[in-house]
Amino acid sequence: MRLRAGNALLVLLTISVAINYLDRGALSVAAPLITREMNLSPTQMGLLFSAFFWSYSSFQLLAGWMVDRYPVRWVYAVGFLMWSLATAAVGLVSGLLGLFAARLVLGMGESVAYPASSKIIVRHFPEERRGFANALVDAGAKLGPGLSTLLGGLTVDAFGWRAMFLFAGLAGLLWLVPWLLITRSSERAECGVTVMAGPGWSEMLHCRQVWGTSVGMFSLGYVLYFLLSWLPSYLVSERGFSMGSMAVLGSIPFWGMALSSLFGGWTSDRWIRGGADPGKVRKLYAASGLLLCAGAMVPAPLVSSSGTSVALITAACVFLGLFTSNVWAITQTLAGPLASGRWTGVQNAIGNLGGVVSPLLTGWLVSETGSFSLAFTAATVVLVGGAVVYLMSLGNVRPVTWMSSSATTPAAA
User: Fold this and answer.
1) Which of 62, 64, 88, 142 is least enclosed, having the fewest CB within 10 Å?
2) Is the pTM here over 0.85, yes or no?
3) Rounded to whole angstroms, how far apart are CA atoms 218 and 322?
């Protein structure tokens, strides 16, 4: 019964995360046109890309605390409403300040997504099935940018960038209808189930594994948002693609990452069900994904062929999908149901600092050098560093024994 309810929620979570990433990636698709219309410099665009992550990262801690304390149903619904309206608002603003404010509100709303998803998955899915469950949600995170680049690029080409934001923000609100209907029955089913309060913030922040998973997530955040923020501009300005060609070719790396994540989640679960040690399997996928991604990123800006460059970036994203397919399953195993929301909040807050640093640093490097070569090099260094820290800090992936926990109010989905 719990697994069946979890499957319905998992489908909705996957769709919501796809919408989440479509909305946050829309600015990247429209960037070449917005830059010309508002006469914005690469540094100013970098500021706008980064602004989202200022609020998104900082509100992760609050979001993690809220989903551990309050019904996930309502926490997620309010956050979804906020980010959808913020997306639509971008289509109405007329200057840098309005864009900046909308990006901040977008980050606040979207901060609930991963803590809520992690809480639901750890509650409804056993260890040997969490790889694919997390990979499916992660596939939504990659389908979102793919759809944003493909459909968003084509919409911008046909109707203009303002129409894209208005449609994406308002149409996404339809998701709230099935969410509120399905979670109502889930909430009733779990009413009266006693949960534990879990560890306090001090105990969590003194846990070495919390910082290890967070540094690994920083490396993902840096590279992912480097691509989300700047790949369309790289393909248009440096490789000479039209908006239409960019829409198609720029979406391919994200389709590849989505498929790779699903494959990694399915094969890792199958391996574990066959008797392999869960911690070793998931660490192998995570570390190898970061290192292989780094190997493909190095030559991407150096090759003369634009097609080869897109192929290398696609390969890098495919390898990164191996990391994303198992990284959240590792966190959920370590944290357990008592701390999954807050641990996810901490990890995502630090991880998405990469989204603060990456767009700003990339914008500055492009302004100073006139090319993306150093920006790709910086991403490679971050990937290798993240893999090293990840391997050295986690040790055996086993549930953490929390010293401070006490009974609290009944749980609700």
Assistant:
1) 62
2) no
3) 16
- DSSP SS3 for 108: helix
Best CA proximity match to 247, nearest among 142, 132, 157, 362: 157
Query: What does the angle CA 220 – CA 213 – CA 314 come to, to the nearest 5 degrees?
Result: 20
Q: Are 184 and 282 in contact (CB under 8 A)?
A: no
Residue by residue, DSSP assigns 314-336 as: HHHHHHHHHHHHHHHHHHHHHHH
Tokens 């590792």, residue located: 330
User: Residue 121's closest CA among 140, 107, 135?
Assistant: 135
Query: How far apart, in whole angstroms, are the C-alpha atoms of residue 163 and residue 146?
Result: 18
Condensed to tens digits (0 to 9), the pLDDT of residues 318-350 reads 999 999 888 888 888 888 777 777 888 888 888
Enumerate the H helices of 127-207 as residue ranges.
Answer: 127-147, 153-159, 161-171, 176-190, 201-205
Residue 181 CB partners (closer than 8 Å, separation 6+): none
Q: Nearest Cα to 56, choosing from 383, 348, 376?
A: 348
Tokens of 141: 């995170």
273-284 pLDDT tens trace = 988 988 889 889
**Sign of dihedral through CA atoms 242, 157, 355, 363?**
positive
- Going by pLDDT thresholds of 50, 70 and 90, the confidence category of residue 413 is low
Average pLDDT over all residues of the chain: 85
CATH fold, domain 2-401, is Growth Hormone; Chain: A; (1.20.1250)
Give me the residue label for tokens 């998104």: 56
- Cα 94 from chain centre: 28
Which residues face 407 on adjacent strands?
Answer: 196
pLDDT digits (tens, 9 = 90+) for 370-412: 889 999 999 999 999 988 988 888 878 788 887 755 444 444 4
Return d(Cα 214, Cα 351) in angstroms, integer.
6
Residue type at 238 in one-letter notation: E
DSSP assignment string, 237-301: IIS---HHHHHHHTTHHHHHHHHHHHHHHHHHHHHHHTT--HHHHHHHHHHHHHHHHHHHHTTTT
For the chain, how many residues are written?
413
Task: Domain ranges for the chain, please list them.
Answer: 2-401
More confident residue, 185 or 366: 366
Phi/psi at 200 (nearest 5 deg)? -80, 170
Whole-angstrom distance, CA of residue 145 vs CA of residue 287: 24
Q: CB of 232 within 8 A of CB of 32?
A: yes
